[in-house]
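Agenda item 2: G3I complex prediction
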Amino acid sequence: MKLINQFLLITFSILILLVSCSAKKRTTLKEAFADKFLIGTAMNSKQINGLDSASIRVIKEQFSAIVPENVMKSEVIQPVEGEFDFSLADQFVKFGEKNNLFITGHTLIWHSQLPGWFCVDAKGNNVSPEILKQRMKTHIYALVGRYKGRVKGWDVVNEAIEDDGSWRKSKFYEILGEDYIRLAFQYAHEADPQAELYYNDYSMALPGKRDAVVKMVNKLQQQGVKIDGIGMQGHMTMDFPSVEEFEKSIIAFSNTGVKVMITEMDISVLPKPGKNVGADVSLNFKYDKELNPYAGSLPDSVATALQNRYADFFRLFLKYKDKISRVTVWGVNDAQSWRNNWPVRGRTDYPLLFDRNNNPKPIVEIIIKEAEEAKK
Ligand code: G3I
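Presented output:
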């Protein structure tokens, strides 16, 4: 009898152990990267409105940082001069605070998603430098000031440099010359002296752009401007950029003395209709079935290639974990990615870490393992 009791006790204990092992919580991205760098995602309006509970659950579980995909852009915040709409931005910041996430604001000065009135007068002519300065100041003071101490970092200027390293001829540049960049950083610093301030751009692995960004940051520093980080957006394809060129940019940017961030990562597997490599939102090509080869599903061979490419880049990020402060992917799941609509509308792309049902792709486990390995 004693023997049977002992046998039952042991069997029971083994069962309990097995059950508790299988129920053991899987390591999440934010846990794996906790002592490396922040791991973030962009939030869209639906998530900010609380209307997409499945992907919101992923954000809370997996990520340590958030950035708004669209709701802090100037056309949303100040569609009409003097009329501010902070409703979604307020909800976004509240969500971040409630869930203990590092909050980045995106973006203060950008030529795109800029309300029509910002740089022109009632007749459509460019305003004077003085008026534009005042408008920039008012906008930045209102937005940065409202979230002072709560939004920890700002993409102050977005995409000021072309791929070849020349200045983008935006309205800001036309009216104020390159000095608009210094002014934007100055106003942001005045509005929240504690906030980190970043320059953010795409195609940052191109040598011309790399050199121009380094030159610009050096000049800002010489002028005494506070700049804390350079954001490499990281909108990638399967063949651009090369890991080697990306690495050169991480090193070059870090050598300026500021933090390096990967701010908008996604990898498109779809064919490129043109030569486009970056994220110039003005590009728009006509839909063609041939340009949408994976509308039904992604073949295993392509999924594996994508997985390898993600792994290569995360290995690179881990190699430079002392220089990189944050890696943010541009959205939670494939269904919500802007890549499905750029540079051709209505395609089916697979650029993110979670699939259309918000399930982690196998790459998530691989990245987590790489991060854990990097501890050793
Ligand atoms: O809000 C309108 C909605 O009212 C309308 O019904 C709908 C119809 O198309 O359009 C909605 O606006 C869209 C907006 O996203 C909000 O969803 C625009 O058409 C669409 O062009 C816009 O795209 C955004 C794009 O920036 C615009 O510049 C993408 O979602 C967003 O992912 C993308 O993000 C940029 C970063 O800010 C900067 N770096 C490049 C990156 C990718 O382009």
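Discussion summary: The mean pLDDT is 94.
Owner for follow-up: CH.
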